[in-house]
Design goal:
Layout (H helix, E strand, L loop, with lengths): L2 E6 L4 E6 L12 E6 L6 E3 L6 E3 L11 E4 L4 E4 L9 E9 L7 E6 L2 E7 L10 E10 L3 E4 L7 E3 L1 E7 L2
Antiparallel strand pairs: 1-2, 3-14, 4-7, 5-6, 6-13, 7-12, 8-11, 8-14, 9-10, 9-12
Length: about 160
């Protein structure tokens, strides 16, 4: 089963296809998808640079991978429920923290739903939860490094689709 995903970028609309996880509408309980930074379901973009994808990292990362980008980096997550269906979600984003990082914003489509933080004054830390929110969303989730941090990193996200 395939689902179409519409990704709203800085200047264009791009299409991708969600193929690795079939959406199961929650009826009796929540359904959680874990999106590792290496997932082909994620759409990475940055207008003035590129994303770097690291493998075989020695610290406590999910599947030992992490990705990072400079200013204006963006990750778009699929909404397998379809962008015309408002669903209740719990979104948890995990990353390492470091002194050259800072705040990032999380959006449902173009609507800001919260801010996470990857800053640590005492050097690099292990992967930890940097954003956690319950929200109703009928669009894709987008993480953007649009708050002036030098870098943004990403390890994984757990998105739980809650029953209506």
């Amino acid at each position: 089963m395939k689902f179409n995903l519409v990704t709203i970028g800085a200047s264009a609309v791009a299409a991708a296809t969600l193929t690795s996880a079939a959406y199961i509408p929650p009826s009796n309980g929540p359904v959680t998808y874990t999106y590792d930074d290496s997932s082909s379901d994620l759409v990475y973009s940055v207008p003035d640079g590129s994303w770097t994808h690291l493998k075989n990292q020695g610290y406590n990362l999910y599947q030992k991978t992490e990705s990072y980008a400079g200013k204006n980096g963006q990750i778009t997550f699929p909404n397998p429920a379809g962008t015309d269906v408002a669903r209740n979600f719990n979104v948890k984003i995990y990353s390492t923290k470091k002194s050259d990082r800072g705040d990032f914003n999380v959006y449902c489509g173009h609507t800001l739903i919260g801010t996470g933080n990857e800053y640590s004054a005492c050097g690099e830390t292990n992967s930890e939860k940097v954003f956690d929110v319950n929200v109703s969303c009928g669009d894709v989730f987008v993480i953007k490094n649009d708050r002036g941090a030098k870098y943004m990193a990403f390890d994984r996200a757990d998105i739980t689709y809650l029953p209506k």
